[in-house]
Design a protein that fits this description.
The protein is mainly β and about 110 residues long. About 0% of the residues lie in helices and about 50% in strands. The chain is built from no helices and 11 strands. It has strands at about 5, 10, 20-25, 35-40, 45-50, 60, 70-75, 80-85, 90-100, 100-105, 105-110. Strands 2, 4, 5, 6, 9, 10 and 11 form a 7-stranded mixed β-sheet that branches. The model has no long low-confidence stretch (mean pLDDT about 95).
Length: about 110
């Protein structure tokens, strides 16, 4: 049974940091491209970042480039998103996905003073 469980969300002040995690099971984690996607209140899905199977290549949306860092630990079947210099517009539910085939349930990040 495939599972992707995102965690680490919460309330943070502007310019603060959070680290999201996504623990995976039920598929060959190390073979999959992995993604973070977010959905802000009242808006559609927005792709945030991508990472290749060995973690050597990462890609980011322009809106987060230079502030967010994606990484993975294939030994732990876990995907990460380090989010720095957070802005109010980063407020969203963050989802992790594997090849856009498998999706986690999301974790809410709220950036507010």
């Amino acid at each position: 049974q495939v599972q992707l469980v995102a965690s680490g969300g919460g309330l943070v002040q502007p310019v603060g940091s959070l680290r999201l995690s996504c623990a995976a099971s039920g598929f060959t984690f190390s073979s999959y491209w992995l993604y973070w996607v977010r959905q802000a209140p009242g808006k559609g899905l927005e792709w945030v970042s991508a990472i290749n199977p060995d973690g050597g290549r990462t890609y980011y949306a322009d809106s987060v480039k230079g502030r967010f860092i994606g990484s993975r630990d294939n030994a732990k079947n876990t995907l990460y998103l380090q989010m720095n210099s957070l802005k109010s517009e980063d407020t969203a539910v963050y989802y992790c996905a594997a090849r856009f085939l498998y999706w986690g349930e999301g974790t809410l990040v709220t950036v507010s003073s």
